[in-house]
Amino acid sequence: MTNDVLVVTGLSKRFGSGPGAVQANDAVDLTVHAGQVVCLLGHNGAGKSTLVNQVVGLTLPDAGTVVLDGVDAVADPARARALASVQAQANVPITGLTPRTAIALVGRIRGLRKADALRRADELLTALDLQPWADRSAEKVSGGVARLTAFAMAAVAPGRLVVLDEPTNDVDPVRRRLLWAEIRRIADASAGILLVTHNIHEAEHVVDDVVLLDAGRVVAHGTPAALVAAHPGDTLEDVYIRLVGHEPPPGQAATVPSSTARAAA
């Protein structure tokens, strides 16, 4: 077990060829440490989902490396996937199940004993205020409840890396706050979390580092406070808009201290 839960180095992926080719990722470097929440920010088409798919072994990179808790995810994607828990952007289909059953079932699949899986499912249902819908058929719950159930399925027996792709979509403000608190608790229990979200105002109070992607490249990375400090008078959202609207030249990514670097200084 290593403190570097995820190390991405020089990751590149191109789709197609000729004038219509798309460079989805371009020499991306990224590190997630144990106990750290790292947020990927970027507009639609910036390369976030492609990056996530390579991290969990669903897409093969053209160049670069992905090391997940010491495992080469490119050479051994199945083993790497066993070390990760993923909440995809699209909700998991749980037709015919209740939220409680779906959450506990994933816990069993990930190796928990039946009693432990049910106990952990109950903890998450309570923490996310889902008990009123815990035993209702999935076909009869709202999109927000389904989204929170999908998060709980990823969190019931979290791997060393937890990947959350837009976890707050469709979730009401009260339960979003509960969700952010649960994300922080999972990180504080030594998992590394890679978070994709557009909820900048909420995320900046939870995340440790931000990685800003534009056109497949990292254009800035650092703590939310450091990113804002580098642009006086701006909020994190202002920084995001400023940087994706005025892309720096290749090889000149705007870099500010990460939380790890600041702690070591």
UniProtKB/TrEMBL annotation:
Entry-linked InterPro entries: AAA+_ATPase (IPR003593), ABC_transporter-like_ATP-bd (IPR003439), ABC_transporter_ATP-binding (IPR050763), P-loop_NTPase (IPR027417)
Keyword list, A-Z: Antibiotic resistance, ATP-binding, Nucleotide-binding, Transport
Source taxon at top rank: Bacteria
GO biological process, one term: response to antibiotic
UniProt-recorded Gene Ontology molecular function terms: ATP binding; ATP hydrolysis activity
Keyword Heme found: no
Gene Ontology cellular component list: plasma membrane
Cell compartment(s), UniProt: Cell membrane
Membrane topology: Peripheral membrane protein
Domain ABC transporter: 6-240
The protein's name: ABC transporter ATP-binding protein
Source organism (scientific name): Xylanimonas protaetiae
